[in-house]
Amino acid sequence: MTKTVLITGASRGLGAALAEALAPTHHIIAVARTTGALEELDDRIQAAGGSATLAPMDITTADAMAVLCKGIHGRWGSLDLWMHTAIHAAPLAPADHVDAKHLAKSMDINVTATSRLITYVAPLLGQSGQAVFFDDPCAGEKFFGSYGASKAAQMALARSWQAETANIGPKIQIATPAPMPTGTRARFFPGEDRSPLSDTKTQAAAVLAQL
Q1: What is the CATH number of the domain that holds 37?
Q2: Which residues form the signal peptide (predicted)?
Q3: pLDDT, tens digit, for every residue of 129-141?
Q4: pTM, whole model, 2 decimals?
């Protein structure tokens, strides 16, 4: 029986690279807001002989995530793996100039939506599934107030879940990929020389080797 993987934030960057890397062994359930990018991912997966279910949804919409997880249960009964790569990268700003709307969006996507997804996805993973989160440690760094605070809160959620399930499952893992030439990083460092950065496919392979 083909294994299943839910990838939230699958349309580009590391999420897309993970989807393509897992396609030979898993049915990909790809979630992202950008329909066009999901369709392009599906084309690449099908060209390589894999299969995917596309879910053009916003992870901050509770009803949509409930429908998604109910649909997964109805069709497959469970999940083998969940990889959560969806993130909001708020513009860099001094702490005393943080925009309230950017902070609210960061917390909504990076923290509240993650917490809700843990609640919805945990029953699908059961005791034998795995979930993977991705750390990007920048809390306390200059100008990273919104992103750093929300990312640190997200990791706190993941680590609590990891500690709580250590003996009973599901297995929770936290990976820290090397810097990659993604759209998220480009928002933070627009003039950066991207040539020394690690390719997303290389980092996807490194993450999967840890599973």
Answers
A1: 3.40.50.720
A2: none
A3: 999 999 999 999 9
A4: 0.96
